[in-house]
Please model this.
Amino acid sequence: MPNLRELLKDILPDGAKKKLVASYDIIGHIAIIKIPDELILHQKAIAEALMSQHKRVKTVVRKLPVQGTFRTRQAELVAGEPNLETTYRENGYNIKLDIEKVFFSPRMGTERMRVASQIKNNENVLVMFAGTGVYAIAIAKEAKKKGFRSNIVGIELNPDAVKYFEENIKLNKIDKLKENGIEVAAIEGDVKEVAKDYAGFADRIAMPLPMSADDFLGCAFACARDGCVVHYYKFAKKEELEAFKALLAKTAAEHDAKTEMLFEKNIKSYARDVNEYAIDFRISKKQRL
Model:
């Protein structure tokens, strides 16, 4: 996908090109671009160049900061149709969403597939902060492909996201997989409250809330079975990872458990010197006599 500087090299003056943020996201028919205040006068030209390059793009919006408990963002229409509901195709499944009502990152598709590919037969999977259901659906699709049985539960606080989660279960025919031994449930509620109903449930847990997943580590340990694998995400500077590992060890001790680090990778930049890390670890619970 060409970056914006390449698309606009013959359109914008040199001074404006230097201020341009080259990357952008496309979700279904919507392109999301970051336009600095200094380039507002050029935003229409930027949007039109992008739409001419990507024929499926019918709407271009300016990227604004994520805000609030639900991590949503307002979308400022720059050009095209004022339709913010779209369907995004990823790895063989479709995700319907409204970009203003729910949080969704198209940049995590490879990571979601990495997690889904690790599913094992007869696993109970708990997806915290499940959003529109993308992790749950990816895992269900992978289980079907491998002929595995799986019980997948997604917990989400945002009622709009839960509505789309339930729509996406039907859109991808996941509700038809019960005869294959695959079930996906979308649960609306606060993870700290709903998790109480899933104590000792999970063989695998996904925690895609990099801003504040630390606050829910105790829930993960409470929900985990012995041997549970946790897929954890965190915004951090590299030097802060040791502090996280110390917190992980402390939380494990409080739950009479141990952890084993399985995977750690810087998956994308978030801010200056701050990256998003994917961290997998296994929880081993001590056997009570």
Summary: The mean pLDDT is 94. The longest strand covers residues 257-271. The radius of gyration is 21 Å. The first helix runs from residue 4 to 7.
